[in-house]
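In practice, a research group might receive sequence data for several interacting partners and want a quick structural hypothesis before committing to experiments. The following worked case mirrors that situation: the sequences arrive first, and a predicted assembly follows.
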Amino acid sequence: MRRRVWGWALVLLLAVGMLPAQAQESITLVVWDNFTRDAEQAMIEELHAQFEAANPGVKIQRESYDTSDLTALLPRALSEPNGPDVAMINQGFSSMGALVKAGLLLPLNAYADQYGWWERYGQSLHERNSFSADGTVFAGENLYGVSNTAEVVGVYYHKALFEELGLSVPTTWDEFEALVKTIIEAGRTPIVFGSLDGWPAIHTYGAIEHAFSQPEEIDRFIYRSEGGTFNTPGNLIAAQKFVEWIDAGAFSPGFEGMDYDNATLSAFLNQEGVMWITGSWMTGTLIEQLGGEDAVGFFLVPSAVGLETPYAIGGVGLGYGIRATSQHADLAAAYIDLMTGPDAAAKLFENGFLPAVAVDASLLTEGTLTAEVVEAWNTISAGDTVGHYLDWTMPDIAADIQELMAKVVTPEQFIANVEADYTAGR
Amino acid sequence: MTGGTEAGLKPASSTLGTRLAARLRGGGRPFARPYQAYLFLLPGLAVYVVFVLIPIFGTFRYSFFDWTGFSPPTFIGLANYVELTRDADFWKAIGNNAFFVIFYTLIPILLGLFLTSLMTRGRLRGLVIFRTGLFLPQVMSPVVVGIIWRWLFALDGPINELLRAVGLAAWARPWLGDFTFAPYAVGVVGSWVQYGLCMVLFIAGAQSIDEELYDAARVFGANAWQQFRHVTLPGLRQQILVAFVLTFIAALRVFDLVFVLTRSGGPGKQTLVTSILVYQQTFNRNRAGYGAAIAVVMTLIIVLVSVVVLRLQARDEARDAAITV
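A structural hypothesis for the assembly, expressed as C-alpha cells:
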C-alpha cells in the first residue's frame, strides 16, 4: 500500500516537473564569475533574480572561481560547445590575449555601442579589455570585456600615528620622501612590506616606479607597443630609490620573510609600521579588523615628475566577456549590461567593492576610509592616470625585484635583466 | 634475504589462504586457460592506460609542438628541446633539484639508518609511539607540512624565537626570504618529510636480519658500531636502494612543498625547481609544449636513475642467490 502511494507521488512529481518545460522554451545562461566570498553571494543572487524577472524563461547557472583557477580553467571551458556563455576574463597577454588568439571570445564593440558601455568609464580603461582581432596587439581595436570593479594601489596610513609624529598627508614626492625620513628618525618603521609571496614587491616597487614615470612610458611597455622599453630614466631612479629606502630602513625589518596575508597584514594592524603601500582591495578587511572607518586613511603616492594628478597602479577588475560560440550572445550582452551598470555598482559599493563606474557622491561620507579610497580612484580615473601591474607583461618580474632587493644585482643590472627578458619576448 | 621471503608467506593459515599461497607458489593448475589470468588484470590495466600511459604519451607528443594548451598546436620538431639547452632558468632549476637531492635523499637515508640502529638495539619502551610519531611527517599532506613550516620559519616564528631566547639573536633571519638560506630552509623541510619513509623501510628490513648473525658478531667481540657496520648495513642493502629510488624521485619532482613555502621558487630563483617551471610555463605563460618538454627531460632522468639502481639491485639478488645455493 505504502509503496503504491510513493509510486503515484513520483509520477505526479515527474508530471509537474515536465509542465513548465513544455509550456515555454527555457534558456540556461551559463556564467563563470569571480565572486567567491560568502558575503558576495547575496548581492549576485539579487542581481540574478532581477535579470531572470526581466527575461522570463531564462535561468542563470553560475559557477564561481578565484582568479588563478579562473585563468587556468577558462581556456578549456571556453573551447567547449556548452561552456560558459559569460565569463570573467583576466586582462593581459597570457589571459585575454591568448583567448582572443585562440578565437574563443566574441568582440563586444557592437554591444558597447548599443548599450553605451563606452561611457561607463574612460577610454584608457577600455583599452585594458581590448585586443586586436588576432590577439597580438594589446589595447587593440576590439573590446572583449566590460568590468564592474576597480582597483587602485596607494598608501594606507594610521591616522593616530600621523598625529603622534606630527605628520600630514603629502602632496608632492619631496614631502612624501621627507615624511619617510621623519618616521625613520622617530625610530619607527615607515612602511610595512613583505616580499615572501613575490607579487607584493611588484606593488611596492611599482608604486615608486609610477611616481617617477610618465603614463605613456609604462603604457608602451605594458602594451608592448612601438618604443616600449623598461630602460627608462624613471625606472632606474625608482630602482635606486627602492634600494636606498631598503638600506635606510624604510620597510619592515625582515620583509624578505614576511607573507602578505598574515605577517604584513598583522604588522600593519599592530601599528608596527605607519603606512602600507597596497591595493584598495584591503579596505574592507582593514575596516573590519580595526572596527571602523576612522583609524586608517588613504592617499596616492604623489608624482615625482610633475604630473597634475598622481600616476598610480590600478585598473578595472576582471571584465565580463562572451564565448565566441555562445548561442545566446544577445542575452549574454543584456546580462553584462546589468552586471556592469549603475544598479550593480550601488550593490558592489554596499558590499565594500570599489565600483568601476563613479559612485554617486551622496553615498560617500566625508573623511571615511571608504570615501578616501573612492575619491582616489575617481581622481586617477578622471585624470586618466591609471597605471599598470608590471607582471601583466613580465610574469616573472617579482623574481627580478627580489634579486634587486637582496642586492644580488645592482639597479643597473636589474633594468638590463628585465629589458633582456622583455626584448626576448619572455 | 631468502629466509625473509619465506616468513612473509607463512601467515596464510586459513585453508583459503593456504590454497591461495600454494597457487601463488605455482602448485597445482591455477587456471584452466592461461589467458583467464589476464582478464583479472584488465580493470587495473585500463585505469593505468587511461590515467598514466595516455597522458605520458600525450606529454611526450606535445613536447614537439608549439601549443598554448588550448589553441591548435603547431609542430616545431625539436625546437622546444633546443630552447631548453639555452634556458638559464631551466639549468638553474635543475641545479636546485640536484641540491635538493642532498636533503631529500642523502640526509633522510643517513637519519633513517641512525634511528633504525637506535630502535632495533634491545627493547625500547613505547617503541610504537616513537615509530608512529617519527613516521607522521611522511603521511601528512605536503600542503599542511608547508603551512606548518612557513609558520615555524616566520620572522617571529618559533625557530627565530628560540634562537633569540638562547642568545643567538644575530642568527635569526627571514629564513624563507633569505637569498642564501632559503634553499637550505626548503631542503630541511624535505628531509623532515622523507626520513620517516626511510626509517620504516629500514626497521622492516632490520627485522628480517637473522638474529644469529648478531649473536655470532658478539661472540667475535664486535661492538655496537661494528655490528651495525658489518651486520645491519649489509642486511639493509636492498632497502637502502629502494629508499634511494623513492626519495630521489621525490627530490626531482618536488612541487607542492616549494609552491607553499616560497610560492614561485623565490627569493629570485633560489628555490625554483623544474616542476614549478613546468607549471609556470604551462599555466602562466600558456606554453604547454615547452612545459611538456621540461617534463619529458625530467621523466627521462628519473627513468634512467631508476633503471641503473634496479640493475644494481638485480645483480645483488643474483649474487645473494648464488651464495645461498
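Before designing any experiment, note the following. The interface with chain B takes residues 71-72, 75-76, 78-79, 94, 98, 101-104, 195-198, 253-259, 262-263, 395-396, 398-400, 402-403, 405-406, 408 of chain A (CB under 8 Å). Residues 16-23 of chain A have pLDDT under 50 and may be disordered.
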